[in-house]
Amino acid sequence: MKKIFSIVALVSFLASCGGGTQGQLVGVKGQKWHSEKPYGMTTVPGGSFIMGKSDEDLAGLSNAPTKTVTVRSFYMDETEITNSEYKQFVHWTRDSIIRQRLAEEAEIAGGGTGQGGGRGNATSINDFAFKGSANNNAGGGAGAASNQTPYQQYSKHYDPNNQRLNWDVELIWETENYPDESYVYVMDELYLPMEQSYNGQRLMDVNMFKYSYKYMDIEAAARSNGDRTNFIKTEEIGVYPDTTVWVKDFNYSYNEPMHNDYFAHAAYDDYPVVGVSWQQAKAFCDWRTLLHNGYKVSKGEQRVRQYRLPSEAEWEYAARGGLESATYPWGGPYAKNDRGCFLANFKPLRGNYAADQALYTVEAKSYEPNNYNLYNMSGNVAEWVHSSYDAASYDYFSSMNPNVNNPENQRKVVRGGSWKDVAYFLQVSSRDYEYADSARSYIGFRTIQDHSSNDIDLNQPPQ
Fold first, then answer.
1. What is the pLDDT of residues 311-322, one digit of tens each?
2. Which stretch is the leader sequence (predicted)?
């Protein structure tokens, strides 16, 4: 009996130590993964290029001298983020806040916590009760016993101890269909007071639409030996665009139709969003990562790389589209083609806005894309990038994936020029800036995502 026990113990030892590896070094396999180009993005293969102004532009050379730099591969939005795409962010934030308030009121009304109502219409505010804490859900991690994706589960997604929101029940918007008084109370506090309403419309208080997220200053943490918790930052950002920029940006000018309709009316859904600050653009990037990861985790797949704003070098490299030392994304040096048609939306001919067949912005997929299939890298709206503006930054930044972003410097670079700019600002090497908390009627943004490949483009357009 003792001999049999020894043999069993030996087999158990070999099985636990060697497993199916037969004692060989085979490595640890990660989750199933394959490279996937995100919807609406194009691949920008990495490579080297000459960044900065040509020596003919003596004024520009003072803050953008030529320098050979290299960037890694990445995916980039083919167009600027549109009103329709940004509305998805606004609506998700709005609905999250409403469900949070409803769940809190359900607790006060005696609904407590539990599974809430089934999918469909609510019969009382209790149907919006929290679905239990995250700790009731196998630790709240990926693969937990829930039919909700992580971006739907929590009232504040960065807090794993938070209660889970109930997304199974549809929100009720028609006042005559509100199920009970508690629901009325919650919805009423989200709208502007009656004295601030006019034209028969009752509008929501968009100042309540705030997105909360956390991030870590990895660069500062990597250079410190301290506890990394000291470098984790919390942000809470109002997400609704500042529609008043159409009035505030232009004195003695009638732009009320743009103020009233540009973000609200479906006619402008495919136009680039404006009135968004650099801080709001950063919050959008975090939410887009959260949204995509929610789906991936629900399928048991590898998380995606984060969406982010491009660095100044990445933006200029992408805008050039593989053309070395070109003035514009289409080459240059002129803003017209051989038939005399303007190639971008800007302010031509000493202020003749209509000469390029557009008065303000145009749809995001207007004009011809560059060789990387990127639309309106020059003109239409200028674009926020991740970098801080420093006139001397080209003199000291790295030649490999250069980026200068000083958290203390609130001047953030904008690139590409806009519908109200002269041709000089459309040049791919021209630099401008705006303050991070500012919003303008002529500044939008597009996002990028790091690519897993180290393939490079030797300045050849993609086939």
1. 999 999 999 999
2. 1-17
Q: What span, in angstroms and rounded, lies between the C-alpha atoms of 113 and 128?
A: 9
Instruction: Identify residue 274 by its one-letter amino acid code.
Output: V
Separation between Cα atoms, residue 44 and residue 447, nearest integer Å = 13
Distance CA 322, CA 461 (A): 6
Q: Enumerate long-range contacts of 348-355, CB under 8 Å, 24 or more apart.
A: 348/422, 348/423, 353/419, 353/420
**Model confidence, pTM:** 0.87
Number of Cβ within a 10 Å radius of residue 118: 10
> 10-residue block means of pLDDT along the chain (463 residues)?
49 52 83 79 95 82 91 96 97 93 86 49 87 47 41 47 77 92 92 83 90 90 83 93 97 95 97 98 96 88 93 97 93 88 92 88 96 97 97 93 92 97 95 97 97 62 43
Expressed as residue numbers, the domain containing 364 is 49-82+290-450
Is 122 part of any domain? yes
Place of tokens 């037969």: 22
Per-residue b or e along 285-305, where b marks 16 or more CB atoms closer than 10 Å to that residue's CB: bbbbbbbbbbebbbeebeebb
Same domain, 431 and 314: yes
Residue 259 lies in a domain: no
Do 294 and 441 belong to one domain?
yes
| Per-residue CA distances from 5 to 1, 11, 16 (Å) | 6, 10, 16
Q: Does residue 66 sit within a domain? A: yes
Asked if residue 108 and residue 53 are part of one domain, the reply reads no
Q: Any idea how long the chain is?
A: 463
CATH of the domain at 305: 3.90.1580.10
Q: Are residues 55 and 148 in the same domain?
A: no
Q: Quick one: tokens of 425?
A: 């600002």
